[in-house]
Design brief:
This protein is an all-alpha fold and 113 residues long. The chain is built from two helices and no strands. The longest helix has 65 residues.
């Protein structure tokens, strides 16, 4: 196993354990239990819960926004290429119609087939 891979795996497990420990610490304290909260204490806990929900919601939306912008950028590039080819096609059609106009017989004379 490469040393860099071992370091990555070690960091992954360290981050996992640190997150679990820090996330479970509030369970040990009675102050964080909403059943025992009253009045202002209950409002503070509610505010903390709303703030954490907002952090997770914001992080999720920012993640999706980055991917959506990548998709939009590729679609804009496709649209530009499509318009460019259409304009080039119209320009060649205009050139063809101009050539056909020059080949048209003068007025009053019929075209021979």
């Amino acid at each position: 196993m490469e040393p860099q891979l071992g370091v990555k795996i070690g960091c992954f497990f360290a981050l996992l354990i640190l997150t679990l420990v820090c996330g479970l610490i509030p369970i040990c304290f009675k102050w964080f239990q909403i059943d025992a909260a009253t009045g202002r204490h209950r409002r503070v806990l509610s505010l903390l819960g709303c703030t954490s929900a907002g952090v997770f919601l914001g992080a999720g939306l920012m993640h999706m926004t980055a991917e959506a912008l990548e998709g939009i950028d590729s679609e804009i590039q496709k649209f530009k290429m499509q318009n460019r080819t259409e304009r080039e096609g119209n320009a060649s059609d205009d050139a063809d119609s101009a050539q056909n106009f020059q080949r048209a017989p003068p007025e009053g004379k019929k075209r021979e087939k």
